[in-house]
Amino acid sequence: MNLFSKIYSYLLLGIFSLLIVDGNLNYEAQIEQFDLDMEEKAIQIGTIMAGMIAHTWNESPRKAIQLVEDADRADTQLDIRFVWLDEIPQDRKRRNPVLQSFIDSDTPQVISFIGRDEHRRKHRFTYIPVAVPGDRPGAVQISESLAHFREYTQKILIRFLLISSLLALISGIILYCFITMKIKSPLEKLTRKAIEIGKGNLEADLEIKGDDELVNLARIMNDMCTRLLIAQEKIHFENLARLKTLEQLRHTEKLSTVGQIAAGIAHEIGTPLNVVDGRAKMIISEDLDREEIIGCAKIIKTQAERITLIIRQLLDFSRKKRTIMRASENVLTLLRQVFHLLTPIATKQGISLNLKVVSEAKVSCFIDAQQIQQVFMNVIMNGIQASPEKGTVLVEVSNIHLRSMLHTDDQMKEFLRIDISDEGQGIAAENLDKIFTPFFTTKSIGLGTGLGLSVAQELLEEHGGWIEVDNRQPKGAKFSMFLGLEESA
Ligand SMILES: Nc1ncnc2c1ncn2[C@@H]1O[C@H](COP(=O)(O)OP(=O)(O)OP(=O)(O)O)[C@@H](O)[C@H]1O
Ligand SMILES: [Mg+2]
Q1: Residue 295 in domain
Q2: Domain of 130, in residue numbers
Q3: Is residue 226 part of a domain?
Q4: What are the residues facing 400 on neighbouring strands?
Q5: Which of 91, 120, 153 is the last residue of a domain?
Q6: Number of CB atoms found within 10 A of residue 193's CB
Q7: What is the pLDDT of residue 256?
Q8: Is 382 in the pocket of ligand 1 (CB under 6 A)?
Q9: Which one of 109, 134, 153 terminates a domain?
Q10: Is 303 in the pocket of ligand 1 (CB under 6 A)?
Q11: Phi, psi (5° rounding) for residue 394?
Q12: Residue 90 DSSP SS3
């Protein structure tokens, strides 16, 4: 039930209750008056009759009785009789103590009461003593049936119900119109405006006429909208200013990145070029024997290959598009192969590599084995480089149900999760959002190009996966990689 219906029903209930109380009081007063009138009328007629009987009795008792019978015949509603009190049946007297005391009294007074006749029907009985000569006590008995009294009460009741219903209907209609005009439609307007505000329409266009609380609320809402509009505009201008500053910052960052790349490339290519230059000079000097010349040539070849590799990496990175050769692969097998390749380097630095697999984890993915191995290599290599002596690089494999970070569909999917953590110094908070930027490195020139993580991130994303990073407590870094599991797995 909405607020409007509640108010309406409570008010109607109130009106009905008032009408019922008022009607009931009226009804009781009218009934009482009617009964009083009946009694008075009987006493009046009875008293006149008693006087006339007493007067005529002296003349002729028969005439006196005849008088009573004539009066009885003349009045259809009243039953008028002359009765000898000593002839009233015992059981009637027993049933009615008022009548009993009237009969027993030496100086009886007029009595009037409601009793039943010989047919058990309700009547109002009135007895007026008559002073007739002789010892026998006589009285005029007037009885009136209460049947028409019942009819009268029924009529009053029906009239009361009709008037009450009519009043309730009229007041209900008036109330309905009043509540609709003064409460319901202003409230609906306020609700509609609140929804509009929720949708972002901040126009202060709420119009409610009058001077009550709802109008006040509308004024407050309009005021609020105006303030919100001003605040919104302020935020808009602040955002524009912030964007401009950010643009400038990015430009500066770009310049510094270009500088870093240049420095990195210069060093990466510069070192092997120096070696090539030195070896070539040695060959030109013709001081070397055949074996030494072959040795120099081999070194030149290795350095040339290193330069080619660096350039290929750069080209790969700038070209962005790689061809992926997907196949169903067991990720554990790939990880073991990477371990096999990296163990000699790790052991040399006193670092152990540890592989932990959650039992019954699904490990089959539809991926390009070489590219994903490249991802593992880059991240595990970083772990080895960051680890202190006797440290451990731990690789954990498990499954997890997640919403994909890369796709907008809201469905939960099961992923393969690979966590690689080390016990190094971790990543400085200010670098956390930079480490995936190409060429970002904190390693000395020549030790890192800053491409490892950006390449890893790009390869994973091309496979529909992603990589996350966090620092471990108390120290060390943890990289988590997610790959979609093979559908049939
Ligand atoms: N396990 C780690 N612990 C601490 N810092 C790390 C870790 N892994 C990466 N980093 C930080 O992230 C930077 C970028 O790493 P990334 O692998 O992209 O480049 P790099 O290791 O410096 O060079 P390379 O191209 O040879 O991999 C690193 O220089 C280092 O500062
Ligand atoms: Mg690296």
Answers
A1: no
A2: 3-153
A3: no
A4: 415
A5: 153
A6: 20
A7: 58
A8: yes
A9: 153
A10: no
A11: -105, 130
A12: helix
Residues measured by CB to lie within 5 Å of ligand 2, the ion: 382, 452
Q: How far is CA 54 from CA 88, 104, 131, in A?
A: 20, 21, 6
Helix and strand numbers (H, E) in the chain are 11, 11
Distance 443 CA to ligand 2 centre (A): 9
Helix (H, G, I), strand (E, B) or coil at 344: helix
Please work out, in degrees rounded to the nearest 5, the angle formed at the alpha carbon of residue 401 by the alpha carbons of 397 and 405: 95
With respect to residue 212, please indicate whether it lies within any of the assigned structural domains: no
Which residue among 260, 312, 377, 382 has the greatest number of ligand 1 atoms within 8 angstroms of its CB, and so is best to mutate? 382
Ligand 1 pocket, 422 CB below 6 A? yes
Q: For the chain, percent helix, then strand, then coil, each to nearest 5? A: 60, 15, 25
How far, in Å, are 45, 123, 142, 347 from residue 38 at the CA level? 11, 11, 11, 126
**Separation of CA 430 and ligand 1 centre (Å):** 14
Question: Which residue has the least CA distance to atom 26 on ligand 1?
Answer: 448
427 within ligand 1 shell (Cβ under 6 A):
yes
- Which residue lies with its CA nearest to atom 9 of ligand 1? 382
Is the CB of 449 within 6 Å of ligand 1? yes
Sequential DSSP letters for 435-470: TTSTT---SPTTT--S-HHHHHHHHHHHTT-EEEEE
Q: Per residue of the chain (489 residues), what is the pLDDT tens digit?
A: 676 677 778 887 887 788 888 878 887 888 888 889 889 999 999 999 999 998 998 889 899 999 999 999 988 888 999 999 888 888 877 888 888 888 888 888 899 998 888 788 888 999 999 988 887 889 999 999 888 777 878 888 888 888 888 887 888 888 888 888 888 888 888 888 888 888 888 887 778 777 788 888 888 888 898 888 888 888 888 888 888 877 776 666 556 556 656 666 776 687 788 889 999 999 999 888 999 999 999 999 988 988 887 777 666 665 555 678 899 999 999 999 999 888 988 998 999 999 999 988 999 999 999 899 989 999 999 999 999 999 999 999 999 988 766 555 667 789 999 999 999 999 999 999 899 988 889 988 667 778 889 989 989 999 999 999 999 888 899 999 999 998 764
The response to whether residue 476 sits with its C-beta less than 6 Å from ligand 1 reads no
Which CATH number do you get for residue 95?
A: 3.30.450.20
Residue 144 included in any domain: yes
The structure tokens 């994903």 sit at 372
- 344: CATH: 3.30.565.10
User: What's the CA-to-centroid distance between 329 and ligand 2, angstroms?
Assistant: 24
Count up the domains in the chain and report the number: 2
Question: CB of 428 closer than 6 A to ligand 1?
Answer: no
Measured by CA distance, the residue closest to atom 27 of ligand 1 is 452
